[in-house]
From TrEMBL:
InterPro entries: Sel1-like (IPR006597), Sel1_AlgK (IPR050767), TPR-like_helical_dom_sf (IPR011990). This is Sel1 repeat family protein. Residues 412-443 are annotated as: Disordered. It comes from the Bacteria. Pfam families: Sel1. It comes from Thalassospira lohafexi.
Amino acid sequence: MDRALKMVYYDDVKVEKDIFAQLSLAEKHFQGAGMPRDESATRRILDQIHRQSRAFAAICYGYMRSKGIGVAEDLGEGQQWYREAAYWFNEEASSGESISANNLGYLYAKGLGVQENAETAAHWFEEAVEFGSVAALYNLGVCYLNGWGVPQDDETAIEYLQRASALNDPSAASVLAYLYLEGRGVSRDPSKSFEYNMRAARAGSVEAASALGYALGVGLGAERNVAESISWFEMAASEGDAYAQANLAMYFCHSSDLKLFNRGWTMLTHACDQGDVSAKYQMTQILIFGVPHREPDYAAALDIAMDLAELGHPGGYHLIGVMYEHGLGVPVDMVRSATWFERAARKGSANGQAGLGRLYAIGSGVEQDNVLAYYWLRMSSPAEGSQAYREMEAVLARMSEKERRVAEKYVAENPGPRRGSFGLKPLENGVFKSGTKSGKYKA
């Protein structure tokens, strides 16, 4: 897990602001990336940061120069402004200013205006904690989680993160939500994960709002609620979050309401423009299967799916397999389809696993094999009553007692690939679920 550190300030009502998250949002407004171009919104954000202090003003100028926001891009001059910020943060940190000590640590962690040094960064985060910085508690927790400048230690990381979360730090709550979902350093508990994400989202975390949208959309840690899922996705999407835009778009693009479809397609396009793989995956599905206001476009779909495959995205593998299985813009080729499905299955795609199991069950593109059929169908964790669940039950019913023993042993010895990290896995529409030849019962 590689979570971001943060540099912060507190606004007039004592709400924490992540400076580089705000600067990134200003850049999106300026470029029209993920949202309509709005230079006035850019100026509002920059002005708010600029007026905090000389150090924050220098950070603002450094970012503008480094990114070419309203001025000519000049990385050298950007670093010069970051050096100016480091000077003032150092002066203030030496006098016991907690925010400045935290922010100086951030500059050392990122090598902005100073020589990158993880140990020095961790030192300043420790100093900031002593001065009372809540943000530094979070940053130090992330350092221990990743072994940045300190020994990697999940237990110590969780201690710092819990202290920060107890003081209403939204970033710490968001990371704890991830850890409880993954079962890293704590017992896996989706409900606890949901609670932490709710705490973080209510405190303004865009990432947590997006994670809640996903959790409510699939019923992970809480009862499935599409209306609430849309609400949280909308909050995150309005802040330019590409993942939220991609998933929100899938709700809207399947609507029979033309206005909702247009809104969804615009969001999906914005997210794709930002290079978001979830958005590309969702757009590929629409281009393959079509929706009420968009006819299929197989050529465009194959291009995007191939791009995803080159990035190692399991959804790309799965969708290419679907196209070859059903002859959608390409000749029907079950062996080639099976090859793509296996790649998807081994990367953790539930759709790829379910499809691969089905192909082993019927012997299409692969040699018929009840054990592998049962294994891959089970790996897909099918919901009771779903097509994959019924297929798994059918395979189990026709297996001999010996095959059942072999299958259960194989499942026990091969727990299967891990799924994508929470917040990164796109919602799947599950229109087609397909799959490939593999060696006998190898992990």
